[in-house]
Design brief:
With about 450 residues, the protein is mainly alpha-helical. The protein contains 21 helices and 5 strands. The protein has a 5-stranded parallel beta sheet, sandwiched between helices. Helix 12 crosses helix 21.
């Protein structure tokens, strides 16, 4: 069992390494970081800092996905505390005062833990997070340096500041503006003596790491500690008990398909088959049947009974007659889970070595084109151009025929087909041009 931590400005990496040399240290977490297979059942992941201003932030369902895989997830100090307050009832473990402040409603916005910093290097913070200001004010009140009313006024003043502007100098200036010079002098003196005097985020981070290392040495099968109160600590139990609705939405599956597979081009390999393999409609129909058999599809009789149950008696005839299959695929178009090897294998069972080589070559050609033309992007390829290419590849003319061919290939719409096609378009057009120049026949 391995212990991982995602940390940045809340606690310097050398401090983490010195106190917990066996913990694997990662930079601030971002969207997709919890999906890779590096995290498996029994591992412990501590979420402290995260990117959520200039990059896509960690989604809640990424944490639920990790919990469902048997990964223990601890949150503290920063975005980890915020996410733990939101997900502790589903099995995430919250640690520290910052977590309790979010859980109890003292803070509710992510700006309270926000720190401006660079994306590389030491991640040194450029401002004082509001939770550390709050810790300083509480300490000042306990020391008799600041009254409760004055502390509330000063906190309200700092809450109005844009978070990157909450610096030590601004805090001192605000205190003096409100005639709280005693507090300003006391605060400055404490920080001069010890710059980490009121660093609640660092204190909470170290507490979370100590718990994580303890959990990392737990015997297999040991129950995790409850996150708070009587909230369930078993993630699987918590996830199933809280709602009858499936939290694994299409968006969640798309994220898994993008980040989780061990093969980084797996989704492109499947997309190539969907777009260019002449016999893929048969593969897709077989996939629907085998998936129904494996999951039950809501009924014990496989796909036919599922169609009957979901679409009515008339639809059973659509299932039975090959010429009417497209009516079924137009209405039932599940998104495959490419992180499940069995589903990926079903979709790629007719893939050839030549197909794999072509995928690699066409993707490389696209990367080279975009690298040499940085002003261009795949999004500049319009939907109309993609639609014309799809008509050419599939040899269809009408709009109805184009839409039907999409669903026969497991692509819910022309838009989805266009998104899948764009990474291949440059390679496909280049190959087509080369063959036409050579006087050869072009086949998809």
């Amino acid at each position: 069992m391995a212990v991982h931590v995602f940390v940045g400005p809340s606690c310097p990496e050398p401090v983490v390494g010195q106190r917990h040399p066996n913990i694997v240290v990662h930079g601030p977490i971002r969207h997709g970081d919890l999906f890779p297979r590096a995290f498996s059942a029994g591992d412990v992941v501590v979420i402290v800092d995260g990117i959520y201003h200039q990059r896509l932030a960690l989604r809640h369902k990424e944490i639920l996905d990790a919990l469902a895989r048997g990964v223990a997830v601890i949150g503290a100090a920063s975005i980890g505390a915020l996410r733990a307050a939101e997900l502790d009832r589903f099995g995430m473990i919250g640690v520290g005062r910052v977590y309790s402040w979010y859980r109890d409603g003292v803070f509710d916005g992510d700006d309270a833990v926000s720190v401006a910093h660079g994306e590389t290097g030491s991640f040194t913070g450029l401002n004082v997070p509001l939770v550390n200001v709050h810790a300083a004010i509480l300490a000042a009140q306990e020391a008799g340096v600041l009254t409760q009313q004055a502390g509330q006024i000063l906190m309200a003043r700092m809450e109005r500041e844009y978070y990157p502007l909450r610096t030590r100098e601004r805090i001192l200036a605000a205190a003096r503006e409100h005639d709280e010079r005693t507090f300003a002098d006391w605060y400055a003196a404490r920080l001069t003596a010890d710059p980490d005097s009121f660093d609640q985020k660092r204190v909470d981070t170290l507490e979370a790491l100590a718990l994580a290392e303890h959990l990392g040495h737990r015997p297999p099968g040991t129950r995790l500690p409850a996150a708070a109160g009587d909230r369930p600590a078993d993630p699987a139990q918590a996830l199933s008990a809280k709602s009858d609705r499936d939290w694994r939405t299409e968006y969640h599956r798309r994220w898994r398909n993008h980040f989780a597979p061990a093969d980084p081009v797996l989704r492109h390999r499947v997309a190539y088959q969907q777009l260019f393999a002449a016999d893929f409609p048969d593969v897709w129909w077989d996939f629907l049947h085998r998936r129904a058999d494996a999951t039950g599809a809501g009924s014990p009789g496989g796909l036919r009974d599922h169609v009957l149950q979901q679409l009515g008696p008339t639809a059973a005839r659509w299932h039975d007659e090959p010429a009417l299959r497209s009516r079924v695929t137009a209405l039932l178009c599940p998104l495959p889970d490419l992180a499940d090897p069995s589903e990926a294998d079903l979709l790629l069972r007719r893939e050839s070595a030549e197909d794999r080589a072509r995928v690699t070559g066409w993707l490389e050609r696209t990367r080279h084109h975009l690298n040499t033309h940085p002003e261009r992007s795949l999004t500049q390829m319009s939907g109309a151009i993609c639609e014309r290419l799809l008509r050419l590849i599939w040899n269809v003319g009408s709009d109805a025929g184009l839409n039907m061919e999409c669903t026969r290939r497991g692509l819910p719409s022309v838009h989805h087909a266009a998104v899948a096609l764009r990474p291949f378009a440059i390679g496909y057009l280049g190959s087509r041009t080369a063959r036409l120049s050579a006087g050869g026949e072009v086949r998809a």
